[in-house]
Amino acid sequence: MCLAQLAQCDVFVGLVGHYYGSSPPSDEKSFTEHEYDAAFNLDRLMFLAPQDFPVAASLRESEDKWQRQQAFRDRISTEYVVDKFTSPEELATQVVTALTNWDRAQPKISVSMDPGQYIIVVQSPNACEAHKAGVDGGTDGTLRPNRGERHILWAMFISIDNPIPIILDFRNGSLPKEVIFSRCCGASYKPRLGESWVTAGINEPRFEEIVGGEIALVLEPSRTNYFLDSSKPKDSFVCLGKGQYTIWMEGSGQLKLSNGVTGTVHEGRPLTFDLDQTFAVHVSVIGEVERVQLENGDYATSYIETAASPVPRIADGVASAECGGEIYEKFMAIQVAKRRPVA
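Now predict its structure.
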């Protein structure tokens, strides 16, 4: 199995036909199904061969394996929106389209670097994560926020061949001079803990204070708020397709969900849920509720105000020219100062 390589991935692409395939010793689950399960914390783009896909009779597996594969295919279909293909050419087009759309929806930082192997380190409020990545000629190195995180404190690209890393430090509330920020729409944020929402303009970066008083850059994926009149919430039916959603609110009241999903939402306690088909989810507003966001995705992001129709927010993006020694020296000076004992 490629579980070690899977741990370094940002997205999982699954091509599933009618063969269950081989399994580890003393294990009935196939290698493919193990890999699918191991990718639970990744975005999974799944492509299924249709039921009438031509298969050579000589390649037919045992009845037991065929039944296992049908159960696996049914499971995928209930857990994810899937595409089906009828030819290699159609599959190739679908995969490229899906990956392109996925990439456009993700927040990312692109850094111009020499070809080679790098270790990329990202410090978020809750974790510091590192993974390996290769950069080919003519491409940029790319990093994303840690899974489920909206903030980046700093990021580091360490070349296997060069001991001087490339550093991007956002803790002073501004972008390094080599960095260009892009987002083709406005977006809301809270500059300081406990403050009200304010709006950043097109291509304006957002910096927020996090717990502990540090400042971090906000990098968020593309999201849509499907709850209408979100700043004047009232009992509503919200039509949602198959997929994963998160609902959160602000105020002293609560929300109760029914019809397709059940649960209660309070301020600071969002609810994430999955739908295996289209539902008109009912949201009951109880007590004082100031704003509501019902968005696609598995964690809550910044507020998107709506009126008579759903409103999308485009993903944040950062591009950087190569930046080395000067930024590295400043970064290390900050690190030393943070660790210097108080006299």
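The two ends are 54 Å apart (CA to CA).
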